[in-house]
Amino acid sequence: MKTRLSAIAPAGLTLTLVVLILGGADELRCDEFTREDLVRWQQEYISVVNRGDVLFHGGLGNHNTVSCDQCHPNAANTHPETYPKFQQQLGKVVALGEMINWCIMNPLESGPLALDDPDLIALQAYILHERRGVGLAAGRH
Predict the structure, then answer these.
(1) Both 47 and 76 in a single domain?
(2) Residues with Cβ < 8 Å from 84, sequence gap 6 or more?
(3) Looking at residue 101, which CATH number applies to its domain?
(4) In a 3-state reduction of DSSP, which class is residue 83?
(5) Is 95 left (phi over 0), alpha (psi -120 to 50) or beta?
(6) pTM, full prediction
(7) 52: containing domain
(8) For 32-78, what is each residue's pLDDT tens digit?
(9) pLDDT (average), residues 2-7
């Protein structure tokens, strides 16, 4: 049985205090990292975004030569901030990676990528990077 936090926390009690009361003080500690860590992590992220950029603009190697950017120039109209959401093409609520796979299988006429495939992660990183600064709006059409 799942217990909702609102069911055990009196009104006005902060999440931090609830975690402490429930014995989760260790959960409040953050990993320590250095400025060098941040620089390295940003460089690794940008390298994945750059890989996604190449894939998005014709680098998927599909035989029919259709590329993502033919329908979605610079990922401008993919609206990743609205996922998960209901997609009529799939008939259900899906995450961004599932919609990317639909496009890969249909307009691009290729096989789907595993959700943990580095190429699918790179495509998602590129698409999300292109929409950075836009507020989340899951479920919106």
Answers:
(1) yes
(2) 93, 94, 95, 96, 138, 139
(3) 1.10.760.10
(4) coil
(5) beta
(6) 0.77
(7) 35-130
(8) 889 999 999 999 999 999 999 999 999 999 999 999 999 999 897 89
(9) 45
